[in-house]
Amino acid sequence: MATPFHQLPALVAHSRTLVHVVVETPKGGRNKVAFDPDLGVFVLKGVLPEGHSFPFDFGFVPSTLAEDGDPLDVLLLLDAPTFAGCVVEARLIGALEIEQREEDGSMLRNDRLLAVAANARLHKGIKEITDLSNEMLHEIEHFFSSYNAVKGGEIKVLHRVGSKKAHALLTQALH
Questions:
Q1: CA nearest neighbour of 143 among 135, 87, 34, 165
Q2: Side-chain half-sphere exposure of 52, counting CA atoms within 13 A
Q3: pLDDT of residue 1
Q4: Among 38, 121, 126, 158, which has the highest number of CB atoms less than 10 A from its own CB?
Q5: pLDDT tens per residue, range 95-122
Q6: Interatomic CA distance for residues 142 and 136, integer angstroms
Q7: How far apart are CA 82 and CA 77, in angstroms?
Q8: From residue 167, how far is each of 14, 18, 29, 97, 162 by CA, in Å?
Q9: Side-chain half-sphere of 33: how many Cα atoms within 13 Å?
Q10: pLDDT at 152
Q11: Range of lowest pLDDT (13-17, 90-94, 134-138, 161-165)
Q12: CA dihedral 141, 64, 34, 112 (to 10 degrees)
């Protein structure tokens, strides 16, 4: 039997720097899809309003556990959208350290790693978060802010951090 997505290794065996990313929601999608480890399948978690869509593929690093109780979230830059359940080898370029207000008013850390697919052509020159334009980073932050606002929450980006700190967040979340 195949290894469940959430139990795949976080790190790519043949590399010191690449990680596995399990795509949940492809770029351009309005449907928020998430892997449900109890069911062992991908489930529809919500639908974004008309005019909103995911700016890049969105997923998680398997075999990790973040402060919010879920695997580490990853926004994945690659040339074209993939599909829910696609496992992509990627390099971390940084992270957005985020504080998120939940519907009940509590505050929770919910960082988002930023990564580039190892096989990307368009983004192959991007090695660090500082290689992204301020406009692109602002749009990514705005997406996460509006996405959470639709659900009745809000976020505050505490810091934009580079690949070294992203790897530290990953190491902290490995289980």
A1: 135
A2: 16
A3: 62
A4: 126
A5: 999 999 877 888 999 999 999 999 999 9
A6: 10
A7: 11
A8: 17, 10, 28, 13, 9
A9: 21
A10: 81
A11: 13-17
A12: 0
User: What type of residue is 154?
Assistant: E
Diameter over CA atoms, the chain: 45
pLDDT in tens, 29-86: 999 999 999 999 999 999 999 989 999 999 999 999 999 899 999 999 999 999 999 9
Cα-flanking dihedrals φ and ψ of residue 139, to 5°? Answer: -65, -40
- Give the span between the Cα atoms of 43 and 128, in whole angstroms: 32
Encoded tokens for 54 = 């995911």
Terminal C-alpha separation, the chain? 22
Per residue, what are the HEC states of 20-56? EEEEEECCCCCEEEEEECCCCEEEEEEECCCCCCCCC
pLDDT surpassing 90 at residue 2: no
Q: What are phi and psi of 67, to 5 degrees?
A: -60, -25
Contact status, residue 158 vs residue 99, Cβ threshold 8 Å: yes
Residue count (the chain): 175
